[in-house]
Amino acid sequence: MVYGPNVGQIQLLELAPAMAAWRLVCRVGSAFDVAIDIYTTDGPNECFVLCTAPADALTNPVWHTILDQWLEAIDAFFLRRLELEKGRMKAKPADLPVLAALLGAMLHSLALRARAGWSPKQLRSLAAAAVRQVISARRIS
């Protein structure tokens, strides 16, 4: 596997079509399904940006930048979807960035758990629970 500065962008492009479904649950759930497939096809695979880059980010400014940009991009990815659904959610608009970050954190967790050998079924169950929690989230502040 080849790693480079565009690895995060490639993964975002792979997730983007899954976000085209019409409901938040479907869109976010589909995005997680795509990520789970990436992480588990042909055995447990890792997400380089979420599993490997953090170890080098403290000592390598290039990887620090890549990691920072990836985290910002994934949060923005989920935030765009949440903003489209804000009228249907219980959370107030000011809470949406935090909820988007929680969905991003779920991607991190899925990557790590896939690496630890969790099955796709287990990963999908965890992702579905996270999506349900975000959708039903009450106002945070």
Any overview of this molecule?
The structure is a single chain. 68% of the residues lie in helices and 0% in strands. It is globular, with a radius of gyration of 15 Å. It has 141 residues and is mostly helical.
Major sheet size, sense and barrel closure: none
CATH class: Mainly Alpha
Give the number of DSSP strands: 0
- Low-confidence segments, ≥5 residues, pLDDT <50? none
- The CATH topology corresponds to Tetracycline Repressor, domain 2
Q: What's the end-to-end separation, in Å?
A: 43 Å
User: Could you say which structural class the secondary elements and strand pairing correspond to?
Assistant: mainly alpha
The overall average pLDDT, rounded, is 77
Which features does this protein show?
141 residues; mainly alpha; Tetracycline Repressor, domain 2; 6 helices
Summary?
The protein has a single domain, classed as Tetracycline Repressor, domain 2, CATH 1.10.357.10.
Structural topology:
Elements: H1 7-15, H2 24-40, H3 48-57, H4 61-84, H5 96-115, H6 120-135
Helix pairs in contact: 2-5, 2-6, 3-4, 4-5, 5-6
